Amino acid sequence: MKVRPGNPYPLGATWDGAGVNFAIFSEHATKVELCLFDSPEAQHESARITLPEQTDLVWHGYLPDILPGQLYGCRVHGPYEPSLGHRFNPNKVVLDPYAKAIGRSIQWRNEMYGYRIGDSDGDLSMDDRDNAAYAPLAALVNTAFAWGNDRHPRIPWHKTVIYEVHVKGFTKLHPRVPRKMRATYSGFSSEPAIAHLKELGVTAVELMPVHHHAYDRHLVGRGLTNYWGYNTLAFFAPEIRYAMASAPAGSVSEFKTMVRNLHAAGLEVILDVVYNHTAEGNHLGPTLSLRGIDNASYYRLVPDNRRCYIDYTGCGNTLNMVHPRVLQLIMDSLRYWVLEMHVDGFRFDLASTLARELHEVDKLGAFFDIIHQDPVLSQVKLIAEPWDLGEGGYQVGNFPVGWTEWNGKYRDAIRRFWKGDGGVVSELATRLGGSSDLYGSSGRRPYASVNFVTCHDGFTLHDLVSYNHKHNEANGENSADGENNNLSWNCGAEGPTNDKRINALREKQKRNFLATLMLSQGVPMLCGGDELGRTQLGNNNAYCQDNEISWFHWDLTPVQNDLLEFTRYLVRLRKTQPVLMRRRFFQGRSIRGAGVKDIAWFEPSGREMTDADWNAHSAHCLGVFLNGKELQEIDEEGGPIEGDTLFVMFNAQHETISFALPMPGPDDVWERILDTAEKRWKRRQRLRDHSYKLRSRSLAVFRLAGKRKVFW
Known about the structure:
Layout (H helix, E strand, L loop, with lengths): L11 E4 L3 E7 L5 E7 L9 E4 L2 E3 L2 E7 L6 E7 L2 E2 L4 E2 L14 E3 L32 E3 L22 E4 L1 H5 L13 H4 L2 H10 L3 E4 L3 E3 L3 H4 L11 E7 L9 H17 L3 E6 L16 H9 L2 E2 L2 E5 L14 H16 L5 E4 L2 H4 L11 H8 L7 E4 L19 E3 L1 H12 L5 H8 L3 H4 L9 E3 L9 H4 L35 H20 L3 E5 L30 H19 L22 E4 L8 H5 L5 E6 L19 E6 L5 E4 L9 E6 L9 E2 L4 E4 L3 E7 L8
Parallel strand pairs: 12-13, 12-23, 13-16, 16-19, 19-20, 20-21, 21-22, 22-23
Antiparallel strand pairs: 1-2, 2-6, 3-4, 3-7, 5-6, 7-11, 8-9, 10-11, 14-15, 17-18, 24-25, 25-26, 26-31, 27-30, 28-29, 28-31
């Protein structure tokens, strides 16, 4: 086959209608061969073409007459010297890091390792067996797609409500989604699926990883999978296991159709992305892609022992964010998903790892500098998981302006309060107000805080109030995996029970958590399925459970239907109350000079909280006055924003308390609009006086009715 020199850019395989340009970076390689395969079942490549040119450490060539759908891989020649950080092995076909579609997934065999498994020299030995029959293969794609008038919804941050969800698990058991579409991108954007999201009121779906990922060999050997997907193999290719289509390119067009359908419904699409490590693991892991292309450039190696990897992730390796070509790989991937796939933002898994230039986390590192100056990426939603497993990795509150963060301190404070721990009310108030201690001094806004009580990692909301201990037996690790302390409270029994009192208390606690989440300043994130009372039977680390433990169940009981309606009501309440979606932090004083505070905190007697009240370890209840007249914010049309004045009271005690509400003017009354202890929780009630009996472990919300005067 005649090969022309081609171009060093763009990287990857690019079809121009007449042929394909192929380019791959490798600083230390001595030769790169492109291998063409006729089918996923092929045992050997049908052609092996040496790339004829190298420009700026990029190997490249142009092949005429190659068509979309062509399967390919690479063989990269160079030194096999693990002690120096080099693990080239041309006996191994490796995956193009810029693969846009996957034509064949990994088939686990010992041949997938660059060294001889079982050899006395371990990974210092070199395996000379060919892995062509088992290696993952890329597929050349034509990226053309009829987007029509698709537009990014561009929901403002302060109006955003996020729904974290797994593409497969969401529809796998959905009775109204056609069977062939279940567990796929098509199913996720089907009419029944979108109807649920719209009725719930969320504005964005945060999809758990959809980059093509590897199923760990040790899991496959136990009949399990890497269901969550935090084990990326291809940063550009959508996961083929979520596609209906059998042809590789079908996964790309199906993903685009999903995004287009979600956008048409006014929903944003945020991807949970894993750029901190890859599926190749530690020095004893397989050779799948980057390791065999240029191990010393792509990975962080131990300086005085380059055979081993620096591991800030707990997954065996860490990408080398100091290297410009690694940064380019990540930035090219991000831009591709925005420009070509039309996604609206990203949640970065273990984002602290991306900020490590030498060892310490550097919030002014090159990764952030590049994103901030990028005209595409600086305009999308950016969410950090602000921690990793390395020293100094917990960085909640320390990411730069323009970033939001999963607020782990919010999660812990809310759980501790409703669990009944003492000494929490001061931090609770700070978290309810948008965590100004974390974000206020750096010029960030309340919406920098992505608030959550539960997420994919840990107990579901139902399990949080139903189990004190994790039950991860199905994972096959003797329950040694997963967090040991999820700050749970099982409300009197471990697991399922027929005790009506305990079950009622659990439902009330779920309502408390959900209501607190939606009443807090910042961006609420709902863990998908919590609104349905989804349980994982106490498994707080269901990463490997691609079965009914993890899938959503849609045959709801009356109790679950009530929880679903409660969640819908909360989201509607939030959306209709501007004081719950502030763009600026509360000041604790009058902004307009009227002598009336924008926020005030009260203890049950009706007196404003004092320093002694804030510091009292025994305090388990408080009330907050939210002044709807003191927003001092402008809407999209340029007019002043004004809404209801609210009063919210929280009681984590085991007893009912009599709560005195602040005194209104003579023509004003307080109207109850929510009480989590009520069976008819949304029944409206106007108070005859200014006292309310707030039952144990509950919260209530009131709006100032009548003339809605601001007061006291």
